Amino acid sequence: MTRNEIGNNCAECINNQNNREGHYGDEPGFCLLRQVLIPEPFWTTCQNFSDRHEPAPTQQQIQGPIYIDSGENPFRSVPVYDWNAYLSSLGYDPGPSQARAVLNMLDELIRSYGLQPEDTTDARGWRILTMEKTIARANVVQWEPGLYFLVIYAPIAELPLNDQRFGPLYRRLLEFNHNGSYGARFAIDERTVHVSLVRPVSQITISDLDANLRMVLTVARNLGDQVRQAVQELVKLDETGSATTQPAQDKE
Ligand code: SF4
User: Quick check: bond before 57 cis, omega within 30?
Assistant: First the structure.
C-alpha cells in the first residue's frame, strides 16, 4: 500500500492538533483521533486522514493502523501496530503523549457535561467538578520521571489538630477502603480526609475516565456524611473528655 492509496499525511490532516491550531509544519504533531504523538507528520498517515473539521475526532471510528514511511526507494508505507513501541524505538517517551491524551479526554468529558474546560481548570491544571455539594479535582501528575498517573480526589472532612483519639476514625476509613469505596480509597493528607483514585495513564478510555470521576464523587457524597459525623463525635469526645485538645506542635 502506498501513501497515495491511503490518503495524505498527518501534517495536512485536520485531526492533527497542530494543524487544527494553525501551526501547520514539520514539527511533531498530536493525533486527536488516536490520541498519540506523531513524530514525523509529513511521513505518517492513516485511513482516517481528513481535511474537513466535521465530524469531530472523537466521533470518528478509527480505521486500521497508522502507516509510516519504510525509508525505502521507491516510497512505501508500512503499518505500525504498536505505536508506543514505535515511539520508544525513536527515543520518544510515550508517557507525555498518554498524559496529554488523558487530559484531552478529561476536557472532552467536561464538555459532554455541558461545561467549558477553561472555566473548570485552576491555575495548576486541576479540573474541578462537582456533584451536588461534593467537589472533585482531576489531573495527570508525573510522580517520577516518565511515570504519569491520573489522580482524582475529593476532600470530605477536616480533622482537628489533636488526632490522639482518632484511632476509631482511622479504623472506619480503612474499613470503608475494604468494602465501601469501590475502586476509590480514603486517604488523609495533612488534616484533610479525601476520597481519591490513582491509576497509570496508559490505556485509559473516556468511558473509564467518566466512571472513575463518578466513582470518586459518588463515594465522597455517599460516605462523606458518615466520615464528617465520625469526626464531629470525636471532636465532642475530645472537648468533654479528660484529654484537652492541644495544637499538634505542643504534643509531648
Ligand atoms: S494518524 Fe490519521 S487521523 Fe491522525 S493525524 Fe494522521 S492521518 Fe490524521
Answer: no
Q: Residue 1: pLDDT above 80?
A: no
Q: For residue range 52-109, what is the model confidence (pLDDT) as tens digits?
A: 877 777 678 889 999 998 888 777 889 999 998 899 899 887 788 889 889 999 999 9
Q: Is 13 in the pocket of ligand 1 (CB under 6 A)?
A: yes
Would the CB of 49 count as within 6 Å of ligand 1?
Answer: yes
Q: Which fold has domain 99-250?
A: Yope Regulator; Chain: A, (3.30.1460)
Which residues make up the CATH 3.30.1460.10 domain(s) of the chain?
Answer: 99-250
Question: Is residue 139 within 6 Å of ligand 1 at its C-beta?
Answer: no
| pTM for the whole structure | 0.70
